Amino acid sequence: MFTRLRPLLILTALGLVFFARLVVHPTQVLSSDYSDFLTYHLPCQRFLVHSWKETGELPLWCPDNFAGMPFAADPQVSAFYPLHWPLLLLPEEHQG
Questions:
Q1: H or E segment at 61?
Q2: pLDDT tens for residues 55-94?
């Protein structure tokens, strides 16, 4: 019985070692000062929703990021991701 559980226990232990920082301090990893979620993804979502509500159009260009960047074509923005569409119904202060 133990021989069947050994690989599972080893993989679980390796996973816990690899993700120990996330298990012990989840808020530091997910919302640190250097988190991509806070510095890139959340501002992009807010810009998308704000532009959509203000003009009724999908923003093609974002002038706020350095000298500007293509916005709708950026796959990291995920403007066409269906699970982000309910954000259009929320007020801006409740989006993150």
A1: strand 61-62
A2: 989 899 998 888 899 999 999 888 888 988 888 888 877 7
* Shared-domain flag, residues 35 and 14: no
**The domain containing residue 71 runs over which residues?**
31-94
Q: How far is CA 46 from the centre of its chain?
A: 12
If asked whether residues 20 and 37 sit together in one domain, one would say: no
Q: What is the DSSP string of 69-87?
A: EE-TT-TTT-TT-GGGGGG
Would the pTM of this model clear 0.85, i.e. be above it?
A: no
* Cα dihedral 36/37/38/40 (nearest 10): 60
